[in-house]
Amino acid sequence: MTSLSATPPAPASARRILTASLVGTAVEFYDFYIYATAAALVFGELFFPAESMTAQQMLSFASFGLAFIARPVGAIVFGHFGDRVGRKSTLVASLMLMGGSTVAIAFLPTYDQVGWVAPLLLCLLRLGQGFGLGGEWGGAALLAVENAPPHRRNTWGMFPPLGAPVGFLMANGLFLILGLALDEAQFRAWGWRLPFLVSAVLVVLGLWVRLKLTETPAFVEAEQAEALPKVPIATLMLEHGRAVLAGTGGVIACFALFYLATAFTLGYGTKTLGYGREAMLAVELVAILFLAAGVIVASVTADRTGARRMLVIGFIGCMVAGLAMGPMLGAGSLFVVFLWLAFALFVMGFAYGPLGGWLPSLFPAGVRYTGVSMTFNLGGILGGAVAPIAAEALAHRGLGWIGLYLVGAGLLSLGGLALLRGRSAA
User: Fold this and answer.
1) How far apart are CA 341 and CA 339, in angstroms?
2) How far apart are CA 128 and CA 66, in angstroms?
3) Contact 218, 6 (CB under 8 A)
């Protein structure tokens, strides 16, 4: 099988590669998270009129979940070109689609203005976001890992996962500033559109960095050896089915943790627990730093002890966070809510950071873009798309039931690792 990397790049080239893998995913996740934040705060009442606030919120989160359905489709399409044409051009295309869809949301009319056309357009653009992101994370991981020195693959592989907290800080930080600068009427009328407009600047920055890259050594090696299958998705499913199942399972826990600790908790904290929007955004902004810390600690340690061990810690931590969710999130103290968020996001770093190095190791270069993208996005459906919707449906029965969802997610991810017990990496 083709190796993950060839000769390590020069220091200047290495900095450019790692910056591109971080900046690109930060922009992509900024786009994704501003939708999650807007869905939790205003999209329900602006685009989905319903008899109850709960129904509005569920419809809003359902539109949020649409992107997860589009992501595997994007993974197949972008994965095909990433494995056949190359990593660089595919990453540029995915960034443009994601960014264009996000900017267009800023100009949408609301339900009061055009009726059912408004939620239809919103859902179509949400699908565009998901389609673009379907090819983003996997390609960014390969950009880092396929250029990495053999003993630093997990450390280099942490840069795409670090794009998540960076993008989240930009997204929620901007919403926090808007909340402090605007009153409620101004925010609902036009303030929520500004973060979507800002995405245009960030996309230009991401494109500028990525257009300066060269192709990865692993892809060039596979191309020269004529080891690129004509239909990567077919080869992937026929020859690497167990790795796909294992990788998909291994992704579930990090998605479930993240979206329950951010999108659901933000909506639940403001609308059910009665905390102020700015207070909840500020708490989440501080807590997200623990995610960045978890990603760094787990990824650097994985180069010494192995990614599998760090992932196990993260998956068990997901289960512990689930068991603690009811008592802590419903304690009636914003500080206790922060403690739960900080713990949940820190252990998510262990479930998430090592994925950047672990998922590419499951597949040979000829199907690696497709394989990493498919597993990451299929796991996103089970862990991310379903989680906020299920949480809204279960909330009236108690937070403990939502916590059990996290316990189940941790068990599924542990099961994914178990599928590969005794098997060597690609």
Assistant:
1) 5
2) 10
3) yes
| Distances in whole angstroms, Cα of residue 199 to Cα of each of 183, 196, 273, 399 | 23, 5, 31, 34
SS3 215: coil
Contacts of 299 (CB under 8 A, 6+ apart): 154, 155, 157, 158, 161, 310, 353, 354, 356, 357
Neighbours of 184 (CB within 10 A): 11
Residue 159 corresponds to which amino acid?
F
Amino acid 7: pLDDT: 56
Report how far residue 288's alpha carbon sits from residue 346's, in angstroms, rounded to the nearest whole number. 8
DSSP letter (8 states) at residue 106? T
Contact 362, 241 (CB under 8 A): no
Separation CA 280–CA 179 (nearest Å) = 11
The answer to whether 119 and 63 are in contact (CB under 8 A) is yes
User: CB 200: neighbour CB atoms within 10 A?
Assistant: 14
Confidence of residue 75 (pLDDT cuts 50, 70, 90): very high
Average pLDDT over residues 291-309: 95
Dihedral (CA of 266, 414, 22, 205) sign: negative
Integer CA distances (angstroms), 422 to 1, 151, 246, 310, 425, in order: 18, 21, 13, 17, 10
For 140-191, write each residue's pLDDT tens digit: 899 899 988 888 999 999 999 999 899 888 988 898 898 889 888 898 889 9
Instruction: List the structure tokens of 132.
Output: 């673009």
Instruction: Report CA 232 to chain centroid distance, whole Å.
Output: 23
